[in-house]
Design a protein that fits this description.
Length: about 120
């Protein structure tokens, strides 16, 4: 017989009868529970992080990014695609991004990326 926790989960999350659940071992019950879990869809959107902008400008850029199917994140990670820096962008954040191979853009380059899908070398 399965212990209390898997029994409770199966009663609430499955169509199994009490008798069917009672006949299961702990291992069998957990196997059923894990098989019922839905796999989260992988988020394959391009990631962008904004730094060095005032509150209203950053909000505007975040909305623009969301409208164009970017995933906006708050920090530099290995999965980050673009770091968009404003006038007050911190050198440590830029340095970390460059060391991880993240492409650093200014606001104009980001706007161009949205408009054309291309990033010019210099603006």
């Amino acid at each position: 017989m399965a212990s209390d926790k898997p029994t409770m989960i199966l009663k609430s999350k499955s169509d199994m009868s009490a008798e069917e659940i009672e006949a299961l071992s702990d291992a069998e019950a957990w196997k059923i529970i894990y098989s019922m879990r839905t796999v989260k869809a992988k988020d394959n959107r391009l990631q962008v992080c904004f730094t060095g902008f005032g509150t209203s400008k950053k909000k505007e850029l975040v909305n623009l990014a969301h409208d164009n199917r970017f995933k906006v994140v708050a920090s530099v990670t290995k999965k980050l695609d673009y770091l968009v820096g404003g006038e007050n962008a911190g050198p440590k954040k830029i340095e970390k991004a460059e060391s991880q191979g993240v492409q650093c853009l200014n606001e104009q380059q980001f706007s161009n990326l949205i408009a054309t899908g291309e990033v010019p070398d210099e603006i």
